[in-house]
Predict the structure.
Amino acid sequence: MRLELPARLLPAALAAQLLFPLAAAAQVGHDPARSPYRTLRYSQFISLTGGLLNGNGGALGVAPHHGASLGLRYEFLSAGTVTVGLQASIANTERLVVNPTRPIATAVSGPVKQRVAIGEAIVQFNITGGKTWHRIAPFASVGLGLMLSNDTPLDSSGFKFHTRLALTPGIGARVFLSDRLFLRLEARNAFWSVSYPATFRAVPSTAPTEPPVLATPRKEWLANGWYTVGLGYAFSRPF
């Protein structure tokens, strides 16, 4: 028995025959298994980082400026393109010591060790959103932190670093070795200020005819390179 369609339905039937293969092809599209993009499956990240803090210490080199750092970072994906995090770091740095009672030619000694603790709140902008590209997730970030340092017993000049605000913009990438395990590579520029005591701008008492050890203003902003690499782990948000 053969069924015949009414004449008024023939155009619709022919259109369906023509469009069905196109619709099927559109559903196939690009093979997801071969796409360079992968959606991040987890929304929380913790990483242990090690790095090098490399600055100039200011006009006289008395600020902490060079040494190894160790840090722990926790962050969560608050939106596809934004990650919010906290980081705590310790840096074992070096600095110089200046005796302002002497002329600058003989006033500088060191370097000596000074430990610095850094706590930061960080906002990270994920360039590929909530995905990776060939397992790489590049980003740009900016952090605002507080620096704490101990006294240097060998320094009797009156210079104190103590507590400072730090601004830390940077760029980097997470390289995912698996859905959970990743490497973190980052280069940042840490900005903070130093203030010099009045003794640095006074005539050296041991050489009254010589200029002071510091002729620049009492406050100076410093830019310090900070380069880190870390190993991280991703996990699910517990709420």
Residues 9-16, 18-29 have pLDDT under 50 and may be disordered. The chain has one domain: 40-235. The CA atoms of residues 101 and 205 lie 5 Å apart.
